[in-house]
Amino acid sequence: MSTDNFLSVTDLARKNVRELIPYQSARRLGGNGDVWLNANEYPTAVEFQLSQQTLNRYPECQPKAAIDNYAQYAGVKPEQVLVSRGADEGIELLVRAFCEPGKDAILYCPPTYGMYSVSAETIGVECRTVPTLDNWQLDLQGIADKLGGVKVVYVCSPNNPTGQLINPQDLRALLEMTQGKAIVVADEAYIEFCPQATLTGWLSEYPHLAILRTLSKAFALAGLRCGFTLANEELINLLLKVIAPYPLSTPVADIAAQALTPQGISAMRKRVEQILQERQYLVENLKTIRCVEQVFDSETNYVLARFTASSSVFKSLWDQGIILRDQNKQPSLSGCLRITVGTREESQRVIDALRAEQV
């Protein structure tokens, strides 16, 4: 039989998938390090005991204990909370619920987190970008000019990878200009490191506001893959229409509920305190190193710095088993590396290795 007219499996794939460059997660990039400072994880493991033994049954779609505990923690009602497979699933659910492929667009402001574009492109939704201003704050006029046909706007605050908060008055102006036109998604993955900056108190004013949260950072549960979307009930109900029937496995829901008890939250706050002390130590030392041109202020568990000959610095540390995150290719971040705040020993390894670079 002739195969001349047969398409390969790749040819059969959707055009936008064939052209898609997948998100280069820290784990996908690999490396053989023993000091992993490229994924903004908490540096040491936290212990939990599984209490649910009903693995023969499917879990609830929205496990009650996890939802109730998170609502209590975030200061919202349970019906304003959706739990998902990491905040990454929340990013995608918002595109799926609000954007018609081939018709609507999302908008985001680089340099920022890479999954907004990947989620939209996978679904066949146009991505529009409005680069931030020189201080990495929002270009409100640029956003206003590009809003036609945009259904979802993503803003990460504190922003990954730059580490700074977006001005609250700018966020309010963005919410005002998008009212009745688009959903505004505030990605608060790092909010535990600056809790005073959360927008949860604004939900009652803005029916089109959604807030993304995660247990991956301050709660030290990156391996759990558990995130939350906070919004008004009308918006949450739309997301419930497109979420998978069982987004969380029973062990994940079990551990999430434990992490969100008063004891779990108190332990998280102690970890945050410790990370903030370690961040200060790292920043102070980075500022004394010759190959470090600039250390940017951070409200998170990572530090962005600009280096002389950053590519060779990155490779030299990589070869010593110290894995950082290279941000060179992001707009306005040439020469920048992002360093997760680890243990004191890990910070010291970085500092010593960088000092050796200048000998």
UniProtKB/TrEMBL annotation:
Domain of life: Bacteria
The entry's keywords: Amino-acid biosynthesis, Aminotransferase, Histidine biosynthesis, Pyridoxal phosphate, Transferase
Pathway field: Amino-acid biosynthesis; L-histidine biosynthesis; L-histidine from 5-phospho-alpha-D-ribose 1-diphosphate: step 7/9
Pfam families xref list: Aminotran_1_2
One Gene Ontology term of the molecular function aspect: histidinol-phosphate transaminase activity
UniProt cross-references to InterPro entries, sorted A to Z: Aminotrans_II_pyridoxalP_BS, Aminotransferase_I/II_large, HisP_aminotrans, PyrdxlP-dep_Trfase, PyrdxlP-dep_Trfase_major, PyrdxlP-dep_Trfase_small
Broadest EC class assigned to this enzyme: transferase
EC number: 2.6.1.9
Catalytic activity: L-histidinol phosphate + 2-oxoglutarate = 3-(imidazol-4-yl)-2-oxopropyl phosphate + L-glutamate
Necessary cofactors: pyridoxal 5'-phosphate
Residues in Aminotransferase class I/classII large domain copies: 35-354
Chain positions found as N6-(pyridoxal phosphate)lysine: K217
Any Gene Ontology biological process: L-histidine biosynthetic process
Oligomeric and partner information: Homodimer.
PANTHER family cross-referenced by the UniProt entry: HISTIDINOL-PHOSPHATE AMINOTRANSFERASE, HISTIDINOL-PHOSPHATE AMINOTRANSFERASE-RELATED
Family: Belongs to the class-II pyridoxal-phosphate-dependent aminotransferase family. Histidinol-phosphate aminotransferase subfamily.
Protein known as: Histidinol-phosphate aminotransferase
